[in-house]
Design a protein that fits this description.
The longest helix has 14 residues. By secondary structure, the protein is mainly alpha-helical. The protein folds into two domains: 45 residues; 33 residues, no CATH class. It is 65% helix and 0% strand. The radius of gyration is 18 Å and the shape is extended.
């Protein structure tokens, strides 16, 4: 049985971009949101250790202290 979902307190800029995305995909806003949700849950496959390692290497992380420094720099806008 279908269930009705509700999204509260969505920022106007997010809603505007969602509406534009829906228009590009020839869908209603509701249809676009449902497509996004379905894609998210359908692609929720477990990540293998090899995939995690590849992402760590792609990001250039080597030690926990380096990753913490990168997070600090990103947070502080550097």
């Amino acid at each position: 049985m279908p269930v009705t979902l509700s999204i509260k307190n969505a920022r106007e800029d997010v809603v505007r971009r969602l509406k534009a995305r829906a228009a590009r995909n020839h869908r209603s806003l509701q249809g676009e949101l449902l497509a996004i949700i379905e894609e998210a849950v359908n692609n929720d496959a477990p990540v293998s250790p090899a995939e995690v390692l590849a992402e760590v290497q792609r990001l250039g992380l080597r030690t926990p202290s380096e990753s913490a420094q990168m997070i600090r720099e990103n947070r502080d806008g550097h």
